[in-house]
Amino acid sequence: MAFLNESSTPLLEVEGLHMNFGGIRALFDFSFKVDEGEILSVIGPNGAGKTTLINCVSGIYRAKKGTILFKGREITRRNPNQIAQLGMARTFQNIALFRGMTVLDNMLIGQGYLLHYGLLGAALFLGRALNEEVRGRDKVEEIIEFLDLQHVRKSPVGGLPYGMQKKVELGRALAMEPKLLLIDEPVSGMNLEETEDMARYVLDINEELGITIILIEHDMGLVMDISHRITVLNFGLKIAEGAPKEIAKNPEVIKAYLGEVGD
Question: How many CB atoms lie within 10 A of CB 12?
Fold first, then answer.
């Protein structure tokens, strides 16, 4: 899959990132960049540091050393809400939805930080408050249609099948109207049909909505099919980076996944 970068400045740039948990090295001198419009997948064995990486990028963790630039601004020490306001959203490996709330209400939460009216505006619900609420609801309804969730929009999330809950979490992230979307293992626990559906949605988000994506995923078939580039982590170190075809035949990547092959 070809990707043409039309911008000379990366949307996201990470330089020399270090992250430890006690004596455990999670990331060591890790650097990479993501160009606008790209799907970059980050892969590696369990414990390689993939989720730690996006936790650092999204502000959940603060790296011990290194620099993170998003849209040319340093965000290394910013809080998650400040980073979200700049245009970054994420999903989680373990579903983090409000199970007793409906699909619609879960997604409306994603619009929350985009609302800028005060307490008085909320009480009167006129002018700016009304306009922003209407705009936010319209945006969420568009996402519900985009993800084919119209038939469950008023259903409590806790009663939905696992694969559909994953779509709702993806929708909530989209409701934040991000420029960069971090997706952590979107097809874990899914069957083949659900995996194929999710792959199509990820591609559509990138191609139709124009959102740049960092994807963390173990399903190599999905990664190879939809990625523009792939970065490979092992024990916190970047061991390879390149196009899917290059990564598939890289001996360091094969060794990391399969181990040494005896004579």
Answer: 23
- Domain holding 172, by residue range, is 93-177
Q: What is the CATH number of the domain that holds 125?
A: 3.40.50.300
Number of domains in the chain: 2
Average pLDDT, the chain: 88
* pLDDT at position 235 over 70: yes
The CA distance from 3 to 226, in Å, is 11
Mean pLDDT of 23-51: 93
Contacts for 234-238: CB closer than 8 Å, 24+ residues apart:
234/44, 234/45, 234/48, 235/25, 235/47, 235/48, 235/49, 236/19, 236/25, 236/26, 236/27, 236/28, 236/30, 236/48, 236/49, 236/52, 237/28, 237/29, 237/30, 238/30, 238/31, 238/32
Residues 50, 121: one domain?
no
Residue 230: which residues within 8 A CB-CB, separation 6 or more? 40, 41, 42, 43, 223, 240, 241, 242, 243, 244, 247
Give pLDDT, residue 261: 47
CA 23 to chain centre: 28
Q: What is the mean pLDDT of residues 147-173?
A: 94
- Mean pLDDT throughout 159-187? 94
User: What is this structure's pTM?
Assistant: 0.87
For residue 207 the two structure tokens come to 């191609």
Burial 24-37 (b: 16+ CB within 10 A, else e): eebbbebebbbbbb
